[in-house]
Write a structure and sequence with these properties.
Length: 552
């Protein structure tokens, strides 16, 4: 076996080959003379707590010496992560490189730890955000047929995070909220870890409001008699003018300041960069809102007091809907939308949702520009929706063999592609799934993509009179109307829609005319010839599948 292995290695590694008469000089790899590099952690940091505050920062740098295989060869390295004490047979590959150092951001490390949990506990298991002991080592190789080398193991403890930081907060009890010192619906937040005693935030107050600052109860509270100095247990603070107040409180220096900042939208999406669309404060939902019918052209931002001194735009490095000071322009799709602005929990965020009622369920969506719709990144013709606002976008798309598309956030500034139909890459390759109706699940934070092809049919006692519900009539795609359809002779009875002639995914009635839901009710029909359509074409006004049954 050792002779065979050396022979195969020699075939893979013919480093020098010079002819001299009929002889060939060959260099043969000897694993017994090979040594791995030594892995170290820059700065010796072994306990890492991940938060939204350090998600874009470099939190871990690994370095290792070059592995010596006894010859001058190009070496490939893989950074492997496993649970503490694991044997690395089911490890997570954090990175692959030809270099001997790699740096991870908080986002990188957070993703790696949560992916490792999935590998160990199953993809549907609930993630844990407790400190997680892990092992890291580097695997190196230069040929698939030659055994690789492993470095020493470094032990780390990594605490992942579920989302945004829960900032310390200060209540603002007063006549605007029932004088409740434990009510944090409108609160101030200590967002700067270097200034833990400084709280800032936005509070809307009507003219004549009186208030104080409190630390969750009346036991610790502050008031003021001069409009700038805080006094423990001091006088109520009076507001003469209604508006949205930006408040800064320093509980150590015992000072505070207040400045009215009323909010508006501005941009060519709402009439021009010199024209503001004022927002109104919605007390019931603690958001600022404006309703506008967008054309799909132009962009907008949020600004205070009709001035560029304080403005918010999109945070392209954050979660969908996140805002940051002086951030990027926001490009809305065409249609009437309610735009909301919120400062809850110390984070400025916005939503765009269809219709003019605040009670409509808000959700984020991404478009699917491609050959399907003229490569328009602002299209609403094909979209995937994050209905639960948890970062996972889902929807349906039908493709021919020649169709290709990408995923975009309203413009080409933020777009994702995929060459392997599994991993998303910012600005990556066009997605080419082949012919069929596909269910899409995409996560632009974790950069994952899942596309599942489904063939659709109707089934039921009305289909061929089969009371055992074992007969399917196939539906076919209509490229003009963008629905699955068929014309069938049906018996009196009931039917449903199902995928792949299987009950794992099926749609029935949801109680509304033409409405469908997963595992819904049977749909009754009388005997006759019917044209039936199934519309999976997801759009903002069309979250759930719909159907039509038209008697011929």
């Amino acid at each position: 076996m050792k002779i065979t292995r050396y022979f195969m290695a020699a075939a893979a590694l013919l480093l020098t080959m010079t002819a001299c008469d009929s002889d060939l000089e060959k260099v043969v790899y000897n694993p017994e003379s090979s040594t791995p590099g030594t892995l170290t952690v820059d700065g010796g940091v072994t306990d890492i707590v991940l938060t939204a505050a350090n998600k874009e920062s470099n939190v871990l740098t690994l370095e290792w010496g070059k592995s010596d295989f006894g010859q001058s060869v190009a070496v490939n390295y893989q950074v492997m992560l496993d649970v503490r004490g694991g044997d690395f047979t089911n490890a997570y590959t954090m990175a692959a490189t030809t270099k001997t150092t790699v740096t991870f951001t908080g986002n990188d490390l957070n993703k790696a730890v949560l992916e490792l949990q999935k590998k160990k506990n199953g993809k549907d298991a609930e993630p844990s955000y407790e400190p997680m002991p892990v092992d890291i080592r580097i695997f190196s190789e230069f040929s698939e047929i030659v055994a690789g080398l492993n470095t020493n193991v470094i032990q780390l403890t990594i605490t992942p995070y579920a989302g945004k930081v829960d900032y310390p907060k200060l209540a603002v009890p007063g006549s605007h909220q029932g004088w409740d010192p434990a009510n944090y619906a409108q609160a101030l937040y200590a967002t700067n870890s270097k200034k833990p005693n400084v709280y800032t935030g936005y509070i809307y107050m009507d003219a004549g409001t009186e208030f104080k600052f409190a630390d969750g109860s009346w036991d610790v509270n502050w008031g003021s008699s001069d409009g700038k100095t805080l006094e423990p247990g001091g006088s109520n603070i009076y507001v003469a003018e209604a508006g949205c107040y930006y408040i800064t409180v320093d509980t150590e220096a015992l000072t505070y300041s207040m400045e009215i900042r009323n909010w508006s939208l501005i941009g060519d999406a709402v009439g021009g960069w010199d024209k503001d669309l004022d927002m109104e404060y919605d007390k019931a939902n603690n958001v600022y809102r404006a309703t506008y019918k967008f054309t799909g052209e132009g962009e907008f931002k949020f600004r205070a007091n009709h001035d560029w001194g304080t403005n918010y735009g999109s945070d392209n490095d954050g979660d969908p809907g996140d805002l940051k000071l002086d951030g990027g322009n926001i490009k809305p799709l065409a249609g009437e939308y309610t735009v909301t602005l919120s400062f809850m929990d110390g984070y400025p965020t916005y939503t765009l949702f269809a219709g003019s009622e605040i009670d409509n369920k808000p959700y984020n969506f991404l478009s699917l520009p491609g050959t399907l719709n003229g490569w328009d990144p602002a299209t609403k013709d094909n979209v995937i929706i994050d209905e639960s606002k948890k970062g996972t976008y889902t929807g349906w798309v039908y493709c021919t063999d020649d169709d290709e598309f990408k995923i975009a956030d309203g413009s080409w500034d933020s777009n994702w592609g995929s060459a392997d139909l599994t991993t998303l890459e910012p600005g990556g390759a066009n997605i080419k799934p082949g012919a069929g109706m596909y269910e899409i699940t995409a996560n632009i934070d974790e950069l994952t993509l899942k596309m599942t092809k489904h063939d659709w049919s109707i089934v039921g006692s009305a289909v061929g009179g089969d009371t055992s519900w074992g007969t399917d009539y196939d539906l076919t795609w209509n490229a003009d109307t963008k629905v699955l359809e068929g014309t069938f002779e049906l018996a009196a009875g009931e039917l449903k829609f199902r995928a792949d002639k299987d009950w794992a995914l099926n749609f029935g009635g949801n109680g509304e005319e033409g409405g469908l839901q997963k595992d819904g009710a049977n749909i009754a029909v009388e005997a006759g010839t019917y044209h039936i359509t199934l519309d999976l074409h997801t759009a903002i006004s069309h979250l759930n599948p719909t159907y039509t049954i038209t008697k011929k």
